[in-house]
Amino acid sequence: MGKNIFFYVLSVVLCFSFYACSEDDADTTKPVIMLDEPEDGDSLRIGESVHFEADFSDDEALGSYLIEIHNNFDGHNHKVSSTRAEETVPFSLKKSYDLSNLRNTHVHHHDIVIPENATPGAYHLVVYCTDAAGNQSMVARDIILSLDAESHHHHHDGDDDDDDHE
Amino acid sequence: MRIKHTIWVVLLVCLSSLTVCAQNIDLADTFQLEEIVVAGVRKPVTEVAVLPAVNIASEEINLHMGHSLMDALSHTEGVQAMDIGVGFSKPMIRGLGFQRVVVSDNGVKQEGQQWGADHGLEIDAFHVDGVVVIKGPASVLYGSDAMGGAIEILPPIIPYQDTLSGEILFQHQSVCSGLSGSAMLAIKHKRVYSQIRYTERHWGDYRVPADSFTYLSMRLPIPDRHLKNTAGMERSGNCLLTFRNKRYEGRLNISDNYQKAGFFSGAHGIPNNSNMQSDGDKWNIDLPYSLVNHLKVSSTNKWTSEKTQMMFVMAYQKNHREEWSKFHTHVIGQQAPAVDPDKELMLDLQTISAKLQFRYTPSDLWEHYAGISTSFQNNEIGGYSFLIPAYRRKEYGAYYLVNYKPSDVWAFNASARYDISHIHTEAHGQDVGEVERDYHDYSLAVGAVFTPKDGHEWRGSIGRAYRLPSANELTSNGVHHGAFRHELGDSTLVGEQGWQADLSYSLRKKRVDMSISPFFSYYPHFISLHPTGQWSMLPDAGQIYQYVDAPATFFGGEVRVKVKLVRDLHYEFSGEYVHTYDHDSHTATPFSPPATMRNTISWERKRWQAYAECQSVATQTRVCHNEDETPGYNLLNVGGKVEFPVSSRKLSLHVNARNLLNTYHLNHLNFYRKIDLPEAGVDIQSTIRFTF
Fold first, then answer.
1. Which phi-psi region, left, alpha or beta, contains residue B140 (left: φ > 0; alpha: ψ -120 to 50)?
2. Do residue B533 and residue A28 have CB atoms under 8 angstroms apart?
3. Domain membership flag for residue A3
């Protein structure tokens, strides 16, 4: 009796495990973001474009990426500043770019321009990237917007403003 | 001596047998030898269930009590504690949690904000005398929401003779410098039994075995190895009054539970260096924090005659929750409110429920139950942030259940239930529209128990369960803080439905006590969040996640073997495994519990007990989209108890050391797993209890 019971239970368990083996494993691997520019703690000059440079890659297929900038004035995220907002406006931005049909790509552009009236101070720059399956990764950078930051154009004199190239 | 043993065996069998197709429905008597107190055995709702269930006695709960009741229950194979950061946890059964598990306190379904990932259980853990865990779809018994199972907190045992009894206990927890105290006083006089209990708990910031944690390649400090702002407190009062005469038994229960706890500073918004710095005070509860008050009044009335019994239960509950956090917004242009500018969220849920049940026992072979139940809910909201809308929900249900026991070898059980419900959610702002939906669905369960000879028992059942979509699944539209993501509801969702088949075999012999219980469930409609690939326009949100109805499969099982080695030395093995699969995303479902096993050596005497346990948790690689794989770990836990009898009184000491080796580990089921926050380090918990 005892043995029969054991075999019965074992066969039930085996049925379950065969079922398990028949599944296709979906892609749960996140895309990889290598953000070269801006770097953590970088100061960006108000009124100029942002030098953005990154590598995106995925084991299957990329989806799209998003650049988000918002202020970090009191060390806490996305607080609405109500005081000295007369002349300047806290800068915020959300801009997405398509990466579908790519597996890895190098991105370099100067699309984002910080407007003249942006309030100087501490900001967050966050880059999100999804793959075709919906896996998402993100990289966050602490940046400073200031009026007297070094202009990046002097730094990268040799750089052409080339767009996506692989 | 022999009689003593026999009685103990009878007691054990009473506790562990699941009273499932219980024919001996009349009150059985058990004898607690030491105190010579004769008491009636409590009959949970599960007396009429055929589903697999586990009875957990108060001794077991006391022995494994952690930071919450769920810590103690998660010792049971198939039951997991979903930690919500630190200090609070919510139940999960066989991989299903949140609003898919019903917690029933004294026969009344606990109604809080079960759907919320960061909301715990508002129940005084010291007040819990015994628990029955039902694994599997139990909506036949509890109505919607019991998809995954139910946790039934049993009413206290009422002594037969007139006594004055009570309990005073103190507890210390080293990991958070926690101090708890609880006092209970009970008077039994003729037909009246009354009991009151007061409990207060305070704890400081939790200690972890790490100096820093890594979040998205950022290395963040944990100053002084304490998680900033995880201190908290809990206060509860319970009052019970029962009256019993020949035919009638009535019970009035009033309880109130208040909790206030800080949110870990790193978990509200993206953690960064500045908000991780210590504030120098390990006891303060600073912003952000949550507070919740749960008031519950219930009345249970039973009229019993020779062949029939009528039961009427009525309850009122008010769950009031507030979350406070320095004003911030995910909505562009929103200004801080003039009153309570830092009140982020207020949720106030009131529930009135009633149940009427008839039992008819025409003979020893048959037993019939029929009942109707209803509940009305009203949820109010407030605060500058938005999670779920205000809503009203009505439910009406009718059920029938029959037990048939033709012989001592076979017993059969069948039950069916039909529910009708209505939900009406209010519009909020421009993005959340009004939703009004009607749902109706049925639940079924059939099962059999086969007892070929003494000590062997087979149990099998097939059941169907359903669940109403909750307000958040229908209407969410915004960033769920802590989740860092934009969640979108779907007002066209159908109700969740699932089938479960399960089998269990148990063997109880002199030296061996074992059980094995595999299960298989298929959900044609299972609601979970899926990533959409669409970017949210809200700040700090990433892509939008939407509630999607997709088929899902769950299977797995539990094994437990307890062997008496020599004299009082026991070895116990228990293991659990759940495999979850979402047929739409082709991944696991969210929060899929990793395989776990426990190897325990224990020395059990009447007056003292000691155990050492190795808890092994496997690496979880089966994750859904955007869930991280979690590495496995081994924890060493030791503990024990000593009892000193002082005439008819008793003084007992429990010591429980968890994670004795201070192992760094992450918990896949912790809500803060997302930010790679490590679990608590070595935690020694000592409890002194004086019972009279």
1. alpha
2. no
3. no
Q: Out of A9, A63, A132, whose CB is closest to B518? A: A9
Residue range of the domain that includes A113: 25-149
The residue whose two tokens read 């939008």 is: B544
For residue B2, pLDDT over 80 is answered with: no
Split at pLDDT 50, 70, 90, the class of B282 is confident
- Is the Cβ pair A26, B586 closer than 8 Å? yes
Looking at the structure of chain A, the number of domains it has is: 1
Contacts of B586 in chain A (CB under 8 A): 23-26
| Closest Cβ–Cβ partner in B330, B537, B624 for A78 | B330
Is A162 contained in some domain? no
Query: What's the angle, vertex CA B131, arms to CA B413 and CA B94, rounded to 5?
Result: 70
Cβ B274–A75 below 8 Å, yes or no? yes
Write the single-letter amino acid at B615: Q
Q: What is the CATH number of the domain that holds A46?
A: 2.60.40.2550
Q: What is the pLDDT of residue B565?
A: 92
Instruction: Please check whether residue A104 lies inside any domain of the structure.
Output: yes
Q: Which residue type sits at B511?
A: R
Structural domain count of chain B: 1
CA distance A145 to chain B (A): 18
Of B269, B330, B624, the CB nearest to A76: B269
Residues of A in contact with B335 (CB under 8 A): 80, 82
Q: Which of B269, B70, B64, B61 is nearest to B667 (CA)?
A: B70
In CATH, what number is assigned to the domain containing residue B412? Answer: 2.40.170.20
- Chain A residues within 8 A of B522 when measuring between CB atoms: none
CA-atom Rg of chain B in angstroms: 25
| β-sheet bridge partners, residue B411 | B449
For B539, the closest of A68, A134, A140 (CB atoms) is: A68
Task: Share the mean pLDDT of chain B.
Answer: 84
- d(CA B146, CA B109) in angstroms, rounded, equals 10
Per-residue pLDDT band for A156 (boundaries 50, 70, 90) equals: very low
Using the Cβ of A4 and the Cβ atoms of chain B, whether some distance falls under 8 Å is answered with no
pLDDT at B198 over 60: yes
What's the pLDDT at A155? 47
Confidence of residue B32 (pLDDT cuts 50, 70, 90): very low
Q: DSSP E strands: which ranges in B216-284? A: 218-221, 232-244, 248-262
> What percent of chain B is modeled with pLDDT above 90?
41
C-alpha torsion angle, residues B431, B383, B97, B477 (rounded to 10):
10
Taking residue B258's Cβ as centre, other Cβ atoms within 10 Å add up to 17
Q: How far is A158 from chain B (nearest CA, A)?
A: 30
Which tokens in the block code for residue B329? 């917004």
Residue B395's CB: how many other CB atoms inside 10 A?
Answer: 20
B34: three-class secondary structure by DSSP = coil
Q: How many CB pairs under 8 A join A and B?
A: 117
Q: What is the pLDDT of residues B59-117, one digit of tens each?
A: 888 888 777 788 888 888 888 888 776 667 888 999 888 888 889 988 899 888 877 76
Does pLDDT of A81 surpass 50?
A: no
What is the per-residue pLDDT across B632-671, written as a single tens digit (0 to 9) for each?
999 999 999 999 888 778 899 999 998 899 888 888 988 7
B160 φ/ψ sector (left φ>0, alpha ψ -120 to 50, else beta): alpha
Reduce the DSSP state of residue A15 to 3 states and report it.
helix
* pLDDT score recorded for residue A159: 43
The dihedral of CA B465, B525, B84, B599: what is its sign? positive
* ipTM of the modeled complex: 0.76
Residue A79 touches partner B, C-beta closer than 8 Å:
yes
Give the domain extent around B472.
2-237+245-691
